[in-house]
Amino acid sequence: MRIAISQPTFLSWQGYFALIDYVDLFVFFDNVQFVKRSWIQRNKIKSKNKELFLTIPVKTKGKRFQKIEEVEINYDHFNCDKLIKTLAENYKHAKYFEKYFYEIESILKKNNKYLLDLNISLIKKICRLLRISTKFQNSSKIEGSDKLKNVDLIEHISQKLSASEYISTIGSKDYMGDVNKLPNISTKVFFFEYLQLPYKQLNDNFLPYLSIIDLLLNEGDKFLEILRKNFKIIKKYD
């Protein structure tokens, strides 16, 4: 079985979904420490010809070492209707706005207590819309995963899930080391790149590395074709 492990990010970037599509099982890293102002709570869309960050405020006072699964949305500083309005204003002229926007809006309006639930609900909704059939698992549900870190944790999860292949971002090479398999088990390690080739966007200049929402609303039916065209597997030991 081919697996990937990643933190559940907010309105994730396109390479995130390309990775989900490629593997058999995608593990959400939800029992690791939350980092403020990371992609867990924010992402970028296109506003005219510039990037615009959308951020979900969270409760952090006295919670310095909280895990992702423990992070609560701070509704005292979060106006969901304003966020939805911002999305609508910037994408109302996109080709697939009517087809997909209200599906995303329905998830945003659920008023989840925890950021984790919002993020995972958005990820799973988008996968259903585009018929990505990959299965999901939370790392917190895997026995012993809360006691390990880095390569040891990845190895533990891979072993528990009987993974034959582990796929990781190319940016993870530094801590993974010069390996073609995990140190103590037979799981093979591969890395991927997402090329971010231009696609049709609103307005003039093409902006790369935006939230999946940009690709979904602009290209809709070509979504999977574009994801797979941009996705490239690289072996560490090449």
Compact overview of the structure:
The protein has helices spanning 14-22, 80-91, 97-108, 115-129, 150-160, 173-176, 212-219, 223-230, and strands spanning 2-6, 25-28, 42-47, 50-55, 135-138, 165-169, 188-194, 231-235. It is α/β, with parallel strands linked by helices and 238 residues long.
Structure write-up:
By secondary structure, this protein is α/β, with parallel strands linked by helices. Helix content is 33%, strand content 18%. It contains 8 helices and 8 strands, in the order βαβββαααβαβαβααβ. The strands form 2 sheets. A 6-stranded mixed sheet has the order 5-2-1-6-7-8. Strand 6, helix 6 and strand 7 form a beta-alpha-beta unit. Helix 1 crosses helix 8. The model has no long low-confidence stretch (mean pLDDT 92).
SS elements, strand count:
8
| Structural class category | alpha/beta
Rg over alpha carbons: 18 Å
Unreliable sequence segments: none
The pLDDT mean sits at: 92
Apparent shape: globular
Strand ordering within the main sheet: 5-2-1-6-7-8
SSE ordering: EHEEEHHHEHEHEHHE
Distance between the termini: 22 Å
Q: Which strand-content bin applies to the residues?
A: 15-25%
Quaternary organisation of the protein chains: single chain
Percent helix range: 25-40%
Number of distinct helices: 8
Biggest sheet features = 6 strands, mixed
Give the tags.
alpha/beta; 33% helix; 238 residues
Topology of helices and strands:
Elements: E1 2-6, H1 14-22, E2 25-28, E3 42-47, E4 50-55, H2 80-91, H3 97-108, H4 115-129, E5 135-138, H5 150-160, E6 165-169, H6 173-176, E7 188-194, H7 212-219, H8 223-230, E8 231-235
Parallel strand pairs: 1-2, 1-6, 2-5, 6-7
Antiparallel strand pairs: 3-4, 7-8
Helix pairs in contact: 1-8, 2-3, 3-4
